[in-house]
Structure formats: C-alpha cells, structure tokens
Amino acid sequence: MTDTGEPGRKARPHAGRSRNEQARQDVLGGALELAAETASRGFTMEELAARAAVSKRTLYRWWSCRSEVLAEALVERALTVVDTPASDDAAADLRAYIRSVYRQAHAPQAAAALRLLMADAQTSPAAAAALRAFTDHRRDTCLALLSRAREHGVVPAGRDPGVMADVILGTVWYRLLTADPITGDTVADEILHLLSR
C-alpha cells in the first residue's frame, strides 16, 4: 500500500484501471468536506488524497484536477438530494424542484464547492469544462421539468424554456456570488409565480 501522508491511514490497494467504488465515494465526500473547510483558499489534490486515503496517482488517474472531482461530487449529490418529482401535479413538482435546488445549493458543503468550482473556472480551461458539465446536467433536469410544466399549462406555452431555466438556475449563481443565501421557500415560490404569469 502507498502511504497517504496522514499517520495511521494507508491508501487502498487498487488493481488495474477500474474504480474502487468505496474509494470513489471517499474522494467525492472528501472533496465536499474540504471545500467547506478551506473556503476560498481551496484545497490541493494532495490534501484530498490524504482525506480520502487514496494515492495522488489514483486521484490523477480518475480526475485531472480538483474541479473535475468537485463537479462529479456535486452531480452525484444533486442526484440523491434534489427533488425531481413526477406526480400528477406538474405545478407542485416544479415548485418542489425549485425549492430543493435552492435549499441544496445553499447547504454549506455544496455552496462552498460551487463557489470554488466557479472561481477555478475563471482561470482554468479544465475547471471551466467541469463547471459546464455540471451546469449542463442541472440545466437538462430543469428543462425536462419546465417542458412538462408547459405541457400541463403551468407556464405559458410561449415562454422559452431555456430562458426560464436561466431564471431558476441563475438565481442560485447570483446568490452564491453575492453571499446572499436563499433561505426558506419564498424565493422559489416567487420565481414560480413570475414564470407562470
């Protein structure tokens, strides 16, 4: 085993190119933890390797930079904690989705990871690509719910789903940039009210 630099912790054995799922989860969780702990300073791949008890070589075999790790961690988190309901009530489904996105984006770990990813994207093409992959994934989910809402008359048929998605998701980014977290459900409800007029 390879020493991780942290006393008492050893890197997991890794054979071949396939990912060890537990190690992957440890890396993704460690990235979110470190983003929250280090805030704007960020963290290094060395720190992440030590936190996740994997070798740096393993990290770089799976990801080229911390932004790729953060983007994957955020996508995975969104898949498990963001509500994407599909009930008979398209308005309630869209409302639940928007509320969930706003709550989760402003949870401490996610907010720190999103800010760090956004900052990295300003100077790194790899980080910009990772941010784009994350935002494209979130936008696709939002567009699917908006299309369904439009089919059910929740939002007017003439509205551009892309612009509506920008309003919903752009609010998250604006609030993250200005350190003005969305608390409660009022903002989500107001956004839905504006879109449905």
From TrEMBL:
Region of interest: Disordered: 1-24
Pfam families xref list: TetR_C_11 (PF16859), TetR_N (PF00440)
Domain HTH tetR-type: residue ranges: 21-81
Keywords: DNA-binding, Transcription, Transcription regulation
Protein name: TetR family transcriptional regulator
Taxonomic source organism: Nonomuraea fuscirosea
InterPro entries: Homeodomain-like_sf, HTH-type_TetR-like_transc_reg, HTH_TetR, Tet_transcr_reg_TetR-rel_C_sf, TetR_C
DNA-binding region (UniProt annotation): 44-63
An example molecular function term from Gene Ontology annotations: transcription cis-regulatory region binding
